[in-house]
Design goal:
Length: 306
């Protein structure tokens, strides 16, 4: 059960739109379905999706329980970057979903980690997300921390919440970026046009992305990216919004690329954080995938020939 108190800034908004923006993991259509089932109450009374909320309204929402998924350990090859009794850090390959969900009941990173760690995973993430502290999109490769116990999970979650974990990404984008470095500060929320997408919207949550140019090519730019916030699809949305979509991103661009690779050229390269138990400063890197490295080498050769 989640509860919200409407502020004057949100007054006059349709309740389904308001709740969809407040809950990034649930669509507006799903909110409307919950309203029909009287799982959404305003001031303890049932409501309609068209109701325009008022300042001071107390809204409660009871989400439907996720369909039960039987978790099983699976032998899926995963590169382990670091491991001790409290955490395991891996290099997630592109195309691998992080945790099971409806439509992806198995074959996920969680299934792979269960085979590696057996019964030593934090339970805070719930039955289908054991040990998962943060996520990467299916088609984003790179470094991820998994907590092996609840104490480590709580500490890492606090570090993420307080923006104390430094995340660095590498991305190949379309176009020649003019700025040497810049900051994108634009709020992100559900797209009002397509609820499966995220977008820059005034009513969205604060999102800050910093980028620096590593190399410029004729039609592409290689960027180093650091994020202060962790909104859904944040890097992909921000770069697309300013006119430099990530190469291979089929959601926020056309997905086509000259290397015929499926999935975006976005890689979580490194993490800098304090070990949740020992408090030792950790800096770990995940090697760039071969297909991504090949693309960079191909582009470098083009420069050499000129």
């Amino acid at each position: 059960m989640k509860e919200f108190i409407v502020t004057i800034e949100d007054a006059g908004t349709r309740i389904d739109a308001y709740l969809a923006n407040k809950n990034e993991d649930i669509s507006r259509v799903a909110i409307q379905r919950l309203i029909e089932k009287e799982k959404v109450l305003v001031n303890s009374k049932k409501t309609k999706a068209s109701y325009k909320i008022q300042n001071g309204d107390k809204i409660s929402i009871e989400k439907e329980k996720a369909q039960e998924i039987e978790l099983k350990a699976q032998e899926i090859p995963i590169e382990i970057i670091y491991e001790d009794k409290d955490i395991i850090v891996v290099n997630k390959p592109k195309g691998l979903v992080v945790h099971p969900a409806n439509g992806n009941p198995d074959g996920t990173l969680v299934n792979a980690i269960m085979a590696i760690c057996k019964d030593t995973l934090s339970g805070i993430g719930g039955e289908i997300r054991p040990g998962i502290v943060h996520r990467l999109d299916k088609d984003t490769s790179g470094i991820l921390i998994i907590a092996k116990n609840d104490k480590a999970h709580i500490n890492l979650s606090e570090q993420i919440k307080n923006h104390e974990i430094e995340k660095t990404y590498i991305a190949l984008v379309k176009g020649k970026v003019k700025e040497t470095e810049a900051t994108i500060n634009m709020p992100i929320g559900r797209s009002p046009k397509d609820r499966k997408k995220m977008a820059v919207v005034k009513s969205g949550k604060a999102a800050i992305t910093h980028f620096k140019v590593l190399k410029r090519y004729d039609q592409y730019t290689l960027l180093e990216i650091k994020i202060e916030t962790g909104r859904t699809h944040q890097i992909r949305v921000h770069l697309s919004q300013i006119g430099y979509p990530i190469v291979g991103d089929s959601t926020y661009s056309n997905g086509k690329n000259q290397w015929n690779e499926q999935g975006q050229f976005l890689h979580a390269k490194s993490l800098k954080f304090l070990h949740p138990i020992t408090k030792k400063e950790m800096y770990l890197e995940a090697e760039i995938p071969k297909y991504f490295q090949k693309a960079i080498e191909d582009l470098d050769k083009q420069i050499t020939k000129q």
